[in-house]
Structure to design on (360 residues):
């Protein structure tokens, strides 16, 4: 059975998604204990709306047979799909990446003569995680759904309880945020054309970086004067920029001579057409070594952060900690949704996973 057929078999009933859209639980993971809660909510758009967000909460990473390489490990992720088959891309990545990561880690630990995946050094873990994302991206090509202009982001947290550490991996513009003694600390950074290093990579591949209005010649290009592509003024200074302040909002990635693909971020899973323009599936990784005062880790898709800052999300979670992580997840989405109602004509899909760290 193909992976996408298996996914649809287990995740649909009568063509409609049926897995739980919200849930919570507690885990004792060796040297740490956590409470987790998640909510995945379809947005509100003109006409019928398909939720293109998805998530994974692999709380039994060791499996039913209790794999000795992963006795106190867990895995969480949020995925934000886009394009015609973005929902299928998001579900596929949420299902495939933890499986590939587990396989890669086990094989690496065996090859190194380690007793568990936790005994691997950080560099080896980074490499196995990178391979899991890249392998997932390659495997998507063999599925029946469209990935020419469809794809997904994926931000994940792999928890190794015995080592008291969490590996954050990010592709796209979903986010991971740590709450440390009430203060928000980013664990990921949005991969968009506004980041200088990301913009340089895609420009080196010949991509244009313009907003929809700029490519339609409605808005001028404020920064940059070199006409690298005939008829367009392109920004070529690779400093980080603030969207809407130093340049036009809504920058996207375009072919030199065609008004496509219009990808909004510089890394994704899928998006075959954009790959030729420098869009890659390799994640940026951060290893968080937990310490006293690390209270909460939040994973959420970009719909949550359209109006809420990292700090405001952590503040909400802190406020509702006594009521549990599911309540905190619901409240984060509810408050973001109110901003969407007030300032936009649609509401984006939103997914939020809250992980409270109760003891280290």
């Amino acid at each position: 059975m193909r992976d996408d057929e298996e996914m649809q078999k287990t995740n649909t009933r009568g063509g409609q998604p049926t897995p739980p859209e919200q849930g919570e639980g507690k885990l004792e993971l060796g040297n740490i204990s956590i409470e987790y809660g998640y909510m995945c909510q379809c947005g509100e758009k003109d006409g019928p709306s398909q939720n293109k967000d998805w998530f994974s909460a692999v709380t039994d990473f060791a499996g039913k047979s209790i794999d000795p390489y992963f006795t106190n490990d867990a895995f969480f992720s949020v995925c934000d799909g886009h394009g015609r088959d973005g929902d299928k891309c998001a579900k596929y990545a949420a299902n495939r990446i933890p499986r590939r990561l587990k396989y890669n880690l086990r094989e690496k630990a065996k090859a190194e003569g380690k007793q568990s995946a936790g005994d691997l050094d950080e560099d080896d873990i980074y490499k196995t995680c990178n391979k899991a994302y890249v392998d997932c991206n390659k495997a998507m090509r063999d599925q029946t759904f469209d990935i020419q202009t469809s794809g997904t982001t994926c931000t994940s947290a792999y928890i190794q309880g015995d080592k008291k550490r969490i590996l954050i991996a990010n592709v796209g513009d979903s986010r991971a945020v740590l709450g440390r003694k009430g203060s928000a600390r980013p664990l990921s950074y949005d991969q968009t054309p506004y980041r200088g290093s990301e913009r340089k990579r895609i420009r080196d591949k010949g991509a244009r970086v313009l907003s929809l209005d700029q490519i339609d010649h409605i808005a001028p290009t404020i920064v940059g004067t070199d006409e690298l592509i005939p008829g367009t003024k392109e920004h070529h200074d690779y400093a980080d920029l603030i969207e809407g302040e130093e340049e036009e909002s809504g920058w996207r990635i375009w072919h030199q001579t065609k008004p496509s693909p219009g990808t909004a971020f510089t890394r994704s899973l899928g998006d075959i057409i954009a790959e030729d323009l420098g869009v890659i599936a390799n994640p940026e990784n951060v290893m968080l070594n937990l310490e006293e005062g690390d209270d909460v880790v939040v994973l959420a898709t970009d719909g949550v952060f359209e109006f809420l800052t990292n700090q405001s999300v952590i503040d909400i979670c802190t406020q509702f900690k006594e009521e549990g992580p599911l309540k905190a997840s619901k409240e984060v989405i509810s408050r973001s949704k109110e901003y969407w109602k007030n300032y936009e004509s649609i509401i984006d899909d939103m997914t939020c996973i809250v992980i409270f760290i109760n003891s280290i």
About this structure: The longest strand covers residues 32-41.
